[in-house]
Amino acid sequence: MDNATPTKTRSGIGGDPISVAVVGHTNAGKTSLMRTLLRDLKFGVISNHPGATRHVEAGQILVNETPVITLFDTPGLEDSIELLEALEKLRPEQDNGLGRLRAFIQDLDRYPQFSQEAKVIRQLLQDELIFYVVDVREPVLGKYRDELKVLSFAARPVIPVLNFIAAPRSNLAQWREQLAALNLHAQVEFDTVAFNFEDEKRLYQKMQALMAARYNDLQQLIEERQKQWESQMDSAAQRIAALWTDVASFRLMTANEEVEIQTAAERMQEQVRKAESDCVADLLQIFRFADEDVTVAALPVRDGEWELDLFDPDNMKRMGVEAGSGAAAGAAVGVGVDLMAGGITLGAAAALGALAGVVWQTGRRYREDLTAAIRKQRKLCVDESTLKVLWLRQQYLFEALQKRGHASQQPMALADGGSPELPGDWSRWLRKARGNPEWSSLRPGCDLDDQERVAFIKTIGSNLPGVLVKS
């Protein structure tokens, strides 16, 4: 490709993608920006040492498998002061910025010390737009002003991308002021480590403002990214809700012997920890992160005693509805039933027949409880404290993944901390899950398509922070 001003002949999805040069000083976060926009953890090389990127590398942003933007990651401008001085000494025929850059490339043998900068200049001459990545932790120094002067020679629209804005040490205000003084008003605050989806949308909207001919292409990209984001959020929320439902409704039956109980408790702990581990892996995949991005401390699973409350409103309603002709709808009401660990006490003998009729009709749901009570078995479940820890850990991870850029290098720690706030419907959810052990996929026979289970999971998922609740 020559160094003439690029002319794109085909716009629209399926036409020529918009070409963007990603430039900036060494270690400003150019490759990090690429990774975050591409959702690609493996793109390029990120290092705290300068000069990690030695060659121009490209990546594409797609809409429905069709490239809309091609990003070119360039080496850092290591010596902009000397480069600008060399360019200003040139006297090309047209005596303008583009002429200087072209003359520089044509006579490159004279400048072996600028081998890296030459790669950047070649790319500037080929692309339609420039992302100038700024590390706002750095003060506004002369070398950065010289970089901007060199970029202005390319006669391309420039969008300054203000990176690391979430860092405690920031010169954001000074950078804003300096860029505005150079008439670079289309700035975008975009932290490649502390991600904010709205910032990404603003970046594309700035492109729309500067590239009117590509407005529709970029609008399709914005809408597609919005749809993908909402889908990710919904999938993650439903996955967490399914985990919680599986664990809250989970129970194991065992003989009322110490050894048997211990064995069952250990099996329960193992199943719950694996269920959480599987959920974490799924969440990382949904947000396109790798397993090494999070370290998971073992969930402190404690066993509890299963107590079926037949007088819970949901259970009463179910029994009344399902009793049908087997017993009067309210037959169970007033029957004293007390399912305790290994025992059952019944009220008036006359009521036993009525209860038996109800149980016969609702047998599949309650037969296990009554049989266990009669046989004096133990019914183990995960205690409420563990369920709270499980919920808070997933909520913390969910929130952290939403704000994590794909350039982040530090793994997250999934421990027992997090916000202590539980959803307002927590107790009602717990009663509902406890009353439906068949909803747990941790035991055989679970019908994952049970409509009541599906609706319950959807309700729980909609309560996670950041989830868009659709009417």
Protein architecture, described:
There is one protein chain. The chain is α/β, with parallel strands linked by helices and 471 residues long. Helix content is 46%, strand content 13%. Mean pLDDT is 80; it is low at 1-5 and 319-353.
Short synopsis of the structure:
This protein has 471 residues and is of the alpha/beta class.
List keywords for this structure.
single chain; three-stranded antiparallel beta sheet; disordered N terminus; six-stranded mixed beta sheet; alpha/beta
Write the topology of this structure:
Blueprint: E1 18-24, H1 30-38, E2 57-63, E3 66-73, H2 80-89, H3 97-106, H4 115-126, E4 129-135, H5 142-153, E5 158-163, H6 172-181, E6 188-189, H7 197-210, H8 215-248, E7 251-254, H9 258-286, E8 294-296, E9 303-305, H10 313-323, E10 337-340, E11 343-346, H11 349-361, H12 363-375, E12 378-382, H13 384-402, E13 412-414, H14 426-434, H15 451-461
Parallel strand pairs: 1-3, 1-4, 4-5, 5-6, 8-13
Antiparallel strand pairs: 2-3, 7-12, 9-12, 10-11
